[in-house]
Amino acid sequence: DVKVTQSSRYLVKRTGEKVFLECVQDMDHENMFWYRQDPGLGLRLIYFSYDVKMKEKGDIPEGYSVSREKKERFSLILESASTNQTSMYLCASSLNERKFNQPQHFGDGTRLSIL
Amino acid sequence: KQEVTQIPAALSVPEGENLVLNCSFTDSAIYNLQWFRQDPGKGLTSLLLIQSSQREQTSGRLNASLDKSSGRSTLYIAASQPGDSATYLCAVPDTGNQFYFGTGTSLTVIP
Predict the structure, then answer these.
(1) How far apart are CA A34 and CA A89, in angstroms?
(2) Which of A44, B15, B82, B89 is most deeply packed, by most CB within 10 A?
(3) Are A29 and A91 in contact (CB under 8 A)?
(4) pLDDT-derived band of residue A51, with 50, 70 and 90 as boundaries?
């Protein structure tokens, strides 16, 4: 079974802090994704990566950056956290380079609160 | 930009009923369509993925259909059980490497 692990289930940070959310997958998947989920808005794609050191912007990249130094790990960085970044963050991975014909597998999510 | 809609937003049925969840999308140029289940406070669990060349996929009591030309997919759940209570979401990747999700249907199966 695919295992996607997010480092924290709950996180509380202060406005202006630099925040790191970590995601690790154990199935050698090429593609990795970061989403945020908000009530009434559903899931929105922030960034994705289809290979080590490669990244592409999703729908809402503003205020975020990502890092993929190793194939199994994809980090989401909030450069200077703001209250409107309070949300549920979900990481996912899938097989296949640059093609999305394989199912995405999700972690359990990180509920981030910015005070 | 792809828009994905799921109707109804919430559904409540007695145990044992068969039910259908709907997903519609505006741009038929899709690779595939995926159905997920989400339990409260949890991540998403993949249920079924239908490739653009397929019409149906089945897994146990679940059957998903895809009609690309009309921009619709349905998820049929047979003989519903209380353990099926969850939010069900559909998602489509477009040819521009973006993923779009519906806002989901919250299903409650009453014992």
Answers:
(1) 7
(2) B89
(3) no
(4) confident
DSSP string, A15-71: TT--EEEEEEESS--SEEEEEEEETTTEEEEEEEESSTT--EE-S--TTEEEEEEET
Between B49, B89, B104, which is nearest A103 by CB?
B49
**To which residue do tokens 């692990």 refer?**
A5
Please indicate whether, in this complex, the C-beta atoms of B43 and A106 are within 8 angstroms of each other.
yes
pLDDT of residue A18: 97
pLDDT score recorded for residue B28: 86
- Partners of B99 on chain A (C-beta within 8 Å) are 33, 35, 43, 45, 48, 58, 100, 104
Q: How many CB atoms lie within 10 A of CB A6?
A: 20
Nearest partner of A34 among A98, A82, A78, judged by Cα: A78
Q: Do B43 and A58 count as a contact with CB atoms less than 8 A apart?
A: no
Please tell me the distance from the alpha carbon of residue A45 to that of residue A80, in angstroms, as a whole number.
19
Q: Is the minimum CB–CB distance between B40 and chain A shorter than 8 Å?
A: no
